[in-house]
Write a structure and sequence with these properties.
By secondary structure, the protein is of the alpha/beta class. It contains seven helices and nine strands, in the order αααββαβαβαββαβββ. The N and C termini lie far apart (47 Å).
Length: 213
Protein backbone atom coordinates (compact mmCIF):
# COMPACT_ATOMS: atom_id res chain seq x y z
CA UNK A 1 0.00 0.00 0.00
CA UNK A 2 1.35 3.45 -0.93
CA UNK A 3 1.96 6.11 1.71
CA UNK A 4 -0.92 8.18 0.31
CA UNK A 5 -3.28 5.20 0.53
CA UNK A 6 -2.14 4.44 4.09
CA UNK A 7 -2.83 8.04 5.07
CA UNK A 8 -6.28 8.01 3.45
CA UNK A 9 -7.15 4.80 5.31
CA UNK A 10 -5.77 6.29 8.53
CA UNK A 11 -8.03 9.35 8.31
CA UNK A 12 -11.04 7.21 7.40
CA UNK A 13 -10.45 4.95 10.40
CA UNK A 14 -10.19 7.98 12.67
CA UNK A 15 -13.53 9.27 11.40
CA UNK A 16 -15.08 5.86 11.94
CA UNK A 17 -13.68 5.86 15.49
CA UNK A 18 -15.55 9.10 16.21
CA UNK A 19 -12.93 11.77 15.52
CA UNK A 20 -14.95 14.32 13.55
CA UNK A 21 -13.41 17.64 14.62
CA UNK A 22 -11.93 19.14 11.45
CA UNK A 23 -8.95 20.82 13.13
CA UNK A 24 -8.02 17.68 15.07
CA UNK A 25 -8.25 15.54 11.93
CA UNK A 26 -6.11 18.03 10.00
CA UNK A 27 -3.43 17.98 12.71
CA UNK A 28 -3.38 14.18 12.76
CA UNK A 29 -3.20 14.03 8.97
CA UNK A 30 -0.35 16.58 8.77
CA UNK A 31 1.74 14.97 11.53
CA UNK A 32 3.48 11.81 10.23
CA UNK A 33 3.09 9.20 12.95
CA UNK A 34 5.86 7.20 11.27
CA UNK A 35 8.30 9.97 12.28
CA UNK A 36 7.55 9.41 15.98
CA UNK A 37 6.84 5.66 16.12
CA UNK A 38 9.60 3.22 17.10
CA UNK A 39 11.52 2.40 13.94
CA UNK A 40 10.84 -1.35 14.11
CA UNK A 41 7.09 -0.65 14.30
CA UNK A 42 6.94 1.68 11.30
CA UNK A 43 4.54 -0.67 9.52
CA UNK A 44 1.98 -0.23 12.31
CA UNK A 45 2.26 3.55 12.62
CA UNK A 46 -0.91 4.23 10.64
CA UNK A 47 -3.03 1.66 12.45
CA UNK A 48 -5.33 2.89 15.19
CA UNK A 49 -3.45 1.12 17.97
CA UNK A 50 -1.13 2.12 20.79
CA UNK A 51 2.53 1.22 20.36
CA UNK A 52 5.06 0.23 23.04
CA UNK A 53 7.84 2.60 24.05
CA UNK A 54 10.78 2.19 26.42
CA UNK A 55 10.16 2.00 30.19
CA UNK A 56 6.75 0.33 29.70
CA UNK A 57 5.37 3.58 28.26
CA UNK A 58 3.03 3.66 25.28
CA UNK A 59 2.42 5.77 22.21
CA UNK A 60 -1.26 6.65 22.51
CA UNK A 61 -3.57 5.30 19.81
CA UNK A 62 -4.43 7.98 17.22
CA UNK A 63 -8.18 7.99 17.86
CA UNK A 64 -7.53 8.84 21.52
CA UNK A 65 -5.11 11.58 20.46
CA UNK A 66 -7.86 12.90 18.19
CA UNK A 67 -10.33 12.87 21.06
CA UNK A 68 -7.86 14.73 23.27
CA UNK A 69 -7.14 17.33 20.58
CA UNK A 70 -10.85 17.90 20.03
CA UNK A 71 -11.50 18.37 23.75
CA UNK A 72 -8.41 20.53 24.34
CA UNK A 73 -9.11 22.69 21.26
CA UNK A 74 -5.76 24.55 21.14
CA UNK A 75 -5.99 27.90 19.36
CA UNK A 76 -3.34 29.54 17.12
CA UNK A 77 -2.12 31.96 19.79
CA UNK A 78 -2.09 29.48 22.69
CA UNK A 79 0.80 28.36 24.85
CA UNK A 80 0.14 24.73 25.84
CA UNK A 81 1.69 22.63 28.61
CA UNK A 82 1.68 18.89 27.96
CA UNK A 83 2.43 16.40 30.73
CA UNK A 84 3.88 13.18 29.33
CA UNK A 85 5.68 13.66 26.01
CA UNK A 86 6.21 9.96 25.33
CA UNK A 87 7.09 9.61 21.65
CA UNK A 88 6.32 13.27 20.95
CA UNK A 89 3.56 12.48 18.47
CA UNK A 90 0.70 14.16 20.32
CA UNK A 91 3.02 17.09 21.10
CA UNK A 92 3.63 17.59 17.40
CA UNK A 93 -0.10 17.40 16.66
CA UNK A 94 -0.75 20.10 19.28
CA UNK A 95 2.05 22.19 17.77
CA UNK A 96 0.13 22.17 14.47
CA UNK A 97 -2.74 23.93 16.23
CA UNK A 98 -1.13 26.13 18.90
CA UNK A 99 1.56 28.80 18.98
CA UNK A 100 3.89 27.12 21.47
CA UNK A 101 4.07 23.79 23.32
CA UNK A 102 6.04 23.00 26.47
CA UNK A 103 6.11 19.24 27.00
CA UNK A 104 7.39 17.36 30.05
CA UNK A 105 8.67 13.78 30.26
CA UNK A 106 10.02 12.02 33.37
CA UNK A 107 12.30 9.65 31.41
CA UNK A 108 15.41 11.44 30.18
CA UNK A 109 16.03 9.22 27.16
CA UNK A 110 12.45 9.72 25.94
CA UNK A 111 12.90 13.47 26.33
CA UNK A 112 16.10 13.39 24.29
CA UNK A 113 14.51 11.24 21.58
CA UNK A 114 11.42 13.43 21.34
CA UNK A 115 13.54 16.60 21.24
CA UNK A 116 15.52 15.12 18.35
CA UNK A 117 12.30 14.31 16.47
CA UNK A 118 11.02 17.86 16.99
CA UNK A 119 14.29 19.25 15.66
CA UNK A 120 14.14 17.09 12.53
CA UNK A 121 10.54 18.20 11.99
CA UNK A 122 11.61 21.84 12.49
CA UNK A 123 9.11 22.41 15.28
CA UNK A 124 10.92 25.42 16.68
CA UNK A 125 8.20 26.42 19.15
CA UNK A 126 8.16 23.05 20.93
CA UNK A 127 10.25 22.78 24.10
CA UNK A 128 10.79 19.40 25.78
CA UNK A 129 12.04 19.10 29.36
CA UNK A 130 12.70 16.23 31.75
CA UNK A 131 10.60 16.96 34.83
CA UNK A 132 8.02 15.68 37.28
CA UNK A 133 4.68 16.32 35.61
CA UNK A 134 2.94 16.75 38.96
CA UNK A 135 4.95 19.95 39.41
CA UNK A 136 4.32 21.35 35.94
CA UNK A 137 6.78 23.86 34.47
CA UNK A 138 6.44 27.17 36.25
CA UNK A 139 9.17 28.90 34.22
CA UNK A 140 6.85 29.34 31.21
CA UNK A 141 3.55 29.69 33.09
CA UNK A 142 0.78 30.67 32.85
CA UNK A 143 -0.59 28.42 30.11
CA UNK A 144 -3.71 28.77 28.01
CA UNK A 145 -4.17 25.00 28.01
CA UNK A 146 -2.74 22.07 29.94
CA UNK A 147 -3.14 18.42 28.99
CA UNK A 148 -2.14 15.44 31.11
CA UNK A 149 -1.34 12.15 29.38
CA UNK A 150 -1.87 9.97 32.40
CA UNK A 151 -4.53 9.19 34.97
CA UNK A 152 -4.72 11.17 38.20
CA UNK A 153 -6.66 10.81 41.45
CA UNK A 154 -7.23 14.57 41.28
CA UNK A 155 -5.76 17.59 39.52
CA UNK A 156 -2.49 18.71 41.17
CA UNK A 157 -2.66 22.21 42.63
CA UNK A 158 0.63 23.09 40.90
CA UNK A 159 -1.04 22.62 37.51
CA UNK A 160 -4.09 24.66 38.48
CA UNK A 161 -1.75 27.43 39.64
CA UNK A 162 -0.04 27.44 36.21
CA UNK A 163 -3.30 27.69 34.24
CA UNK A 164 -4.37 31.09 32.95
CA UNK A 165 -7.71 32.44 34.20
CA UNK A 166 -10.30 31.04 31.79
CA UNK A 167 -7.82 28.46 30.53
CA UNK A 168 -8.55 24.78 29.89
CA UNK A 169 -7.03 21.78 31.64
CA UNK A 170 -7.71 18.26 30.36
CA UNK A 171 -6.96 15.13 32.38
CA UNK A 172 -8.17 11.60 33.06
CA UNK A 173 -9.35 11.31 36.66
CA UNK A 174 -9.90 8.00 38.41
CA UNK A 175 -8.15 4.76 39.27
CA UNK A 176 -6.86 1.85 37.18
CA UNK A 177 -10.37 0.43 36.76
CA UNK A 178 -12.47 3.52 36.10
CA UNK A 179 -11.43 6.85 34.60
CA UNK A 180 -13.29 9.84 33.18
CA UNK A 181 -11.91 12.47 30.83
CA UNK A 182 -12.40 15.76 32.66
CA UNK A 183 -12.19 19.24 31.14
CA UNK A 184 -11.58 21.90 33.77
CA UNK A 185 -12.13 25.58 33.06
CA UNK A 186 -13.50 28.55 34.97
CA UNK A 187 -13.39 26.41 38.14
CA UNK A 188 -15.92 23.97 36.68
CA UNK A 189 -15.39 20.32 35.71
CA UNK A 190 -17.01 18.84 32.63
CA UNK A 191 -17.19 15.04 32.31
CA UNK A 192 -16.39 14.03 28.72
CA UNK A 193 -16.90 10.31 29.26
CA UNK A 194 -14.81 7.22 29.97
CA UNK A 195 -11.16 6.96 28.93
CA UNK A 196 -8.19 4.77 29.77
CA UNK A 197 -4.67 5.98 30.59
CA UNK A 198 -1.86 4.53 32.65
CA UNK A 199 -1.49 6.30 36.01
CA UNK A 200 0.76 9.35 35.93
CA UNK A 201 3.94 8.57 37.87
CA UNK A 202 5.74 10.95 40.18
CA UNK A 203 9.37 11.98 40.12
CA UNK A 204 12.24 11.78 37.66
CA UNK A 205 14.00 8.39 37.63
CA UNK A 206 17.69 8.42 38.44
CA UNK A 207 20.16 8.10 35.61
CA UNK A 208 21.25 4.49 35.11
CA UNK A 209 24.57 3.63 36.73
CA UNK A 210 27.53 3.66 34.39
CA UNK A 211 28.70 0.26 33.28
CA UNK A 212 32.18 -0.72 34.46
CA UNK A 213 34.94 -0.16 31.92
Amino acid sequence: MSDAARLMRFVLELRQAGVTDARALSALERTPRTHYAPEHLDGLAYDDISLPLAHAQTMTKPSVVGRVLSALAPQPGDCVLEIGAGSGYQTACIANLAHKVVTLERWRDLTVNARSKFGMARLMRVHAHTADGFEGWAAEAPYDRIVVNGALADIPQALLDQLKPGGTLLAALGDADSQRLIRYRNERREDLGPIKFAPLERGVPDEPAALPA
